[in-house]
Amino acid sequence: MSGHALGVLEFERVLDRVARRASSELGRERIRALEPRTDRDVVVRELGRVGASMRFRADRPDFGLGPVPDVGACLAQLATEGSALEGSELFALGVLLTTSRELRAELTPAGEFPELASIETRLVDLRPVSEAIVRSVDADGHVLDTASRDLKTIRDRLRGAHTKIVRKLEAYLGTLPERFVVPDGSVTIRDGRYVVPLRREGRGEVGGIVHGESQTGATVYVEPPVAIDLMNQLRDLEGEEAREVRRILRELTAQLFPHAASIRGAWDALVDFDSLDARARAAVAWDAVVPEIAADGARSLSIHDGRHPLLLEAREGAVVPFDLELEPHERALVISGPNTGGKSVLLKAVGLISSLAQSGVVPPVGPGTVLPIFDDVFADIGDEQSIARNLSTFSAHLANLADIVGDSNDRSLVLIDEMGTGTDPAEGAALARAVLEELVRRGATVLVTSHLGEMKRLDTEGSGIVNGSLHFDAERMEPTYRLVKGRPGRSYGLAIARRLGFPGAVLDRAEGYRDQGDAQMDELLARLERHEREARDLAEQLDHERMEAERLRVDVDARARSLREAERTADARAREDARKLLLEARAEVEEAIRTVQGAAEGGQPVEEVAREARRKVEQAAGRLRDPARKRGTAAGRAKSAASGKSSTPAPGDSVHVRSVGSSGRVVEVRSGRALVETGALRLEVPLDELELQAESPTGSETRPRRGGWRGPTRDAAPPIEVDLRGKRVDEMEAELTRALDEAMLGDLGELRIIHGKGTGALRQRVSELLAGDARVREFRMGGVG
């Protein structure tokens, strides 16, 4: 593609921003070397690989590619059989192998990313070799003691020899006369040999080999005779160490030699992946999606949510996206509007989006973007005057236009900024029109910006030219950077000058000098903008009202559902209350029957007992007519009235404690609370929790009978056991039926029935009743214990 156009578009600057996201310098260099491709299959494949890398990163947000060192020189040397790499070179290859193994492990499972198969197949897993390298050399290239057992033995002996020499020389230094010894002198090293510092006059007495002297010459560094043999032994050990190190390096190199080609392939694959990963990270940062590449020959251009990548990188506020659609019959878009409206940025963004996509970089676009393949991009943007070539701004533009017209075809993208300016407006407009029509005739895709009114009138049926504008808020006099296709834009030059305080008389005179056709077009555009703004405000208002109506509808539906639920709940509660009332009524009737039967058996006057029973039943019926009254409270008051006592409990009264379901005697009353003694316990409860109980004729407290079923109060939990022992069959049936009723109301899943053994009549009748009751799912006899 045209290097001039890519330079104008700042293509390399964008690539540099993408390259900064790479992990290695090699990856960065590969990104900076990218160029637009013109083979559609290559472009689609490369964008697909970047898309796969984006998915890979999304699935593994914590993944980080390991180091990818530059091992080009190492691999060249490794190709020579018998060579021995240095420790630092082996370490770099070990790092490369580790990174290759780790990435291969991430890419291999389940073939999740078929687009990256070319990378995965080139990666190698040479764990034994890489682990041997890690065990043998460090990052500085130093061969470690763990490289071999012999090396460790030699180095242990070396350390011992060093220590032995130092101690020997320190002891020797202590035997020398003070006139020969340098104050604070100690054993040191010169030329790799251990020496002691002596005064010059002691040199002849000590003997040995001199390995240097001080700057003044007063001190000489002597290797005394006693150290020469030890030093020779040390040198021998150092020779052994060097030979063992060289053997280890040669052995490690030999292990790598058979895999030289594979390692080179893995290295290239890692650099390739690093480049893809950096491009994927840039796409994620730009909130970009992989665009669709149009089929060969397709000329439509569709960009959705397009943004300039350098604006995104600058992060200086929100970047307004643009939508641009050119149908196949629309070859040129003439963009007009005020200065500072973003027209030049739009041209560069379109050029960069196409160039980046064809270079394998996902551009900052949204879903639905379709880009054709351009063989070349031409751009004439900005001031390109050249003093060296003696070209004015207009001449430079003419030179560019001449090249563009001569080289463009139906696979070219042409971007021209401020077309027709820089010379006489009439001539400039005529030239611009002729150039634009020629480019359309050649089939090029053209985007131009212009302030000339003549250019705005080229949008006619069949011309292949369509108008566009970048919207400008006329009320606030601010650009919105929103691209509007199909309508030219106003320049707002005089309006902006008036807002900035330019003299009104001068502006009024300028209005009179304007071309009438241009003035009428601006007036028409102003009316159109006003109507669009009113329509937009109306649409927003309708949307708001629609949302409010939807909210009210949802609220009404919720209220209706709540009301229906409340009705269902109330109906269920009413049925439950009715069942409880019927059970209470039946309990009162059964109690009256038992009272009459007991009187008959005990020889008491039946008529008098019957009248008392009827009175109790009538009282119960009266209570049932007023369900709002508390049953226990009413009964307590009735009993109190019958006994002539006050309704308020007093010390010594027998009471029933509703909250715990037990009876007792009041010990003390104070401050609205009573201390009640029930069995071995004393409870302090509120007075409204107590019911006064009537005394039996003998003065003893009336208590429920032992055995049998104890009917719970309305709020008490139903019993889980009913004792029928000692009952007649007719008594047993009433007790069992009542127990089953309460078990159903209390939602019990199981009821335990005790009937004893005896003659077996109770057991047989219980089984018959349970078998014929539809509420009983199953029953069984009791087991052992």
Task: Write a structural description.
The strands form 6 sheets. The protein has a 6-stranded mixed β-sheet, with helices on both faces. α3 packs across α12 (260-285) and α20 runs antiparallel to α21. By secondary structure, the chain is α/β, with parallel strands linked by helices. The chain is built from 24 helices and 21 strands. The radius of gyration is 52 Å and the shape is flat.
Quick structural gist:
With 785 residues, this protein is an alpha/beta fold. It is 51% helix and 14% strand.
Provide the descriptors you would attach to this structure in a database record:
785 residues; alpha/beta; six-stranded mixed β-sheet; five-stranded antiparallel β-sheet; flat
Rg over CA atoms, rounded to whole Å, is 52 Å
Major sheet size, sense and barrel closure: 6 strands, mixed
**Terminal-residue CA separation:** 98 Å
Going across the biggest sheet, name each strand in turn.
10-11-12-8-13-14
Proportion in helices: 40-55%
Strand content: 5-15%
Poorly predicted residue ranges? 385-390, 625-642, 696-715
Please work out how many helical segments DSSP would assign: 24
Mean pLDDT over the residues: 81
Task: Name the overall outline.
Answer: flat
Q: State the secondary-structure class.
A: alpha/beta
Q: How many beta strands in the DSSP annotation?
A: 21
